[in-house]
Amino acid sequence: MKERIFTPGPTPLPEEVRLEQARQIIHHRTAEFSEIFKQVCEGLKYVFQTKRDVFTFAASGTGAMESTIANLFSSGDKVLVVRGGKFGERWSDIGRSFGLEVIPIDVEWGKVVDPEQIEEKLKEEKNIKAVFTQLVETSTAVVYDIEGISKVVRKTPAILVVDAISGLGAHPLLTDEWRIDVVVAGSQKALMLPPGLSFVSLSEKAWEFTKTSTLPKYYWDFNKAKASLEKGQTPYTPAVSLICALREALRLIEDEKIETVIERHRKLAEATRKAAVAIGLEVFGDPPSNVVTAISLPEGIQDKELRKKLKDDYGVVIAGGQGKLSGKIVRIAHLGWMDKLDIIGVISALEMSLLELGYDLELGRGVKAAEQVLINDKL
Amino acid sequence: MKERIFTPGPTPLPEEVRLEQARQIIHHRTAEFSEIFKQVCEGLKYVFQTKRDVFTFAASGTGAMESTIANLFSSGDKVLVVRGGKFGERWSDIGRSFGLEVIPIDVEWGKVVDPEQIEEKLKEEKNIKAVFTQLVETSTAVVYDIEGISKVVRKTPAILVVDAISGLGAHPLLTDEWRIDVVVAGSQKALMLPPGLSFVSLSEKAWEFTKTSTLPKYYWDFNKAKASLEKGQTPYTPAVSLICALREALRLIEDEKIETVIERHRKLAEATRKAAVAIGLEVFGDPPSNVVTAISLPEGIQDKELRKKLKDDYGVVIAGGQGKLSGKIVRIAHLGWMDKLDIIGVISALEMSLLELGYDLELGRGVKAAEQVLINDKL
């Protein structure tokens, strides 16, 4: 049986990316590598929709999140953190580990923050240095209104820091146009790579923060990253094979065009939700993201049983709930290298598995609903 | 023309490692990945010659160096750093970035520290928390006497921290037997992987230091790494494709046996040195390492010209000097997936290139000297 993964990272690797990784390694302190790295940096700017530098770290996404804290802040700095899921909690945890005074804006899991709430908090609290949020809170499968939040934050001296690790490439994120100060991303999501690389872009306003930050940093030092970038290099040994593979992934995105990539994610997500509803399931999280669809487990269906059957009988790997949603939802990602028939497949496997586990449904109804969304679409 | 790299990291990838990376990605929060990761952790213990945990980070070697500082120390802690090259300087730079009081033991580049010097310093200075050194100082191509240093440090409350990034697998390093407190390693050296993973092992004495450290940490947190390791996991998304490839590389090392791997490095290094001397060149650095051979550039031969010719005419990539040795030496690595004929090839390319650049030598003399070392050897 073939294995098919529908997890919100890692996501399936296109053949171009896989084969690129099988090539013999090259040395990084060479003109050849610098040329590749420069192409990668340009491609990242296109995906980030920014004219500014994008820094690349040999680290997974949490590393790039930490780099933002270490480079832009000092112990005691007061920051707002939107905390509506596991990754909101992560901002809060990293901030506190580094001595920041974290003021949480707690959001019910599955709901999103209203930009007005942030505006109020920014008025209420003095000296807020930054607002931290997600583009997509992967644990609850919702998408935040980053454009709206940005309009509120940009009127203040605070910077807006967006964890777009799972959301970049699946939702519109106009970094420069929306004036987002910091965007953090990771390789194993819409960028269609294995995990092991993460990225940060900074506005001029954010860059100013590097000048006053006193937190210790070395591996994550943005000043060193910037100085090296100008020479087509990274300060420390880069993850060469992943960077070479990233060039291939970026080519695929450029060929498809970023707007089309995002539209494809939107359509696949819509098909997944319509299918779930058609077989009587409830979609969890509002507004739902293009990254992953969370489905509330119907009565009598156990998370582990369902995921085991999907895996054992159909080769399908989906995600369970995280933290307080563990055992309450399952999550089906439609992220990265995914197409229409991938979605038909996962819906079909879900129908068959649920029926076998005693859930009452009419086979084919979910697939039909998905087909009605996907037919005639040039994805 | 084929490209052949003789750089002290990255090193050439065996076919098993390359093909493993071309496989479709698997999700990391699965029993399948945990099983792979557990095998990897066991294999690492074998290479490190330790019974204790080895932590794996998605980061290059400098990241694991930083993790050691962040987890074991506090601002103001006094430490000794053996500074005999670029990587000794790196310990000193990271330490100072994190507010440690770094007392350097400066060693002439190309020479090594005498354990007695460390013993004296440890007596002279009060409250030294740690001694930092390299196994191999890659920039000067020398190997330090870690066993001797350990005998001195273990008598004090200080811990010994060894950057074995380039040396592990190329020189004996009996972590437990020699009672080395911290060993740091990287993937792109004798482990025959691309860069992007780094490793740390800790003695019980070192682990005690985690209990008093007040430096901020999150991504590098050893306590989180330990708690996850027990479940066959990492705290944050691991570099899945590199970890799967590492299992293959570790299998190759286990099949060959670590003692044989080290002996192979020793023999290839000896052949390289004998060849260099046979064509009238001077080997730089004493005692020379099994990792890389540094050769002083003879009068009239320019570093860049020589390396360009090697690359353009023979497809051979070697390294130049770093820092104050830039333009004065070239470095030929015999590290990782290397065999007898690789060495014959690089020596031959060196002979032909030097002659073409006007250096007076008899073709074949270097190769002959290398053959005399390598003949009849079951490498």
Protein model, in words:
2 copies of one chain form a homodimer. The first copy, chain A, has 379 residues and is of the alpha/beta class. Chain A has 2 domains: 15-256, Type I PLP-dependent aspartate aminotransferase-like (Major domain) (Aspartate Aminotransferase, domain 2), CATH 3.40.640; 258-374, Aspartate Aminotransferase, domain 1 (Alpha-Beta Complex). Helix content of chain A is 42%, strand content 17%. Chain A has 13 helices and 14 strands. Chain A has helices at 15-21, 31-48, 61-72, 86-97, 115-124, 146-153, 204-210, 222-229, 240-256, 258-278, 303-314, 340-356, 365-374; strands at residues 4-6, 54-58, 78-83, 101-106, 128-134, 136-137, 142-143, 159-163, 182-186, 197-202, 282-284, 292-296, 316-320, 329-333. The first copy, chain A, has a 7-stranded mixed sheet with strand order 2-10-9-8-5-3-4, with helices on both faces. A 5-stranded mixed sheet of chain A has the order 1-13-14-12-11. Chain A has a two-stranded antiparallel ribbon with strand order 6-7. In chain A, helix 1 (15-21) packs antiparallel against helix 9 (240-256), helix 3 (61-72) packs across helix 4 and helix 10 (258-278) runs antiparallel to helix 13. Chain A is globular. The model of chain A has no long low-confidence stretch (mean pLDDT 97). The interface between A and B is large, with 55 and 55 residues.
Molecular shape of chain A: globular
**Quaternary structure:** homodimer
> What is the arithmetic mean of pLDDT of chain A?
97
Distance between the termini of chain A: 26 Å
Rg of chain A (CA only): 21 Å
Outline the biggest β-sheet of chain A: 7 strands, mixed
Binned strand content of chain A: 15-25%
Low-confidence runs of chain A: none
Order the strands across the largest sheet of chain A as they lie in space.
Answer: 2-10-9-8-5-3-4
The largest interface is: A-B, 55 and 55 residues
At the fourth CATH level, what is the homologous superfamily of the largest domain in chain A? Type I PLP-dependent aspartate aminotransferase-like (Major domain)
Query: Would you report the number of β strands of chain A?
Result: 14
The CATH architecture of the largest domain in chain A can be named as: 3-Layer(aba) Sandwich
Q: Would you tell me the structural class of the helices and strands of chain A?
A: alpha/beta
CATH topology of the largest domain in chain A: Aspartate Aminotransferase, domain 2
The string of secondary-structure elements of chain A, in order, is: EHHEHEHEHEEEHEEEHHHHEEHEEHH
Number of helices of chain A: 13
Q: Roughly what percent helix of chain A?
A: 40-55%
Summed up, the domain count of chain A is 2
CATH class of the largest domain in chain A: Alpha Beta
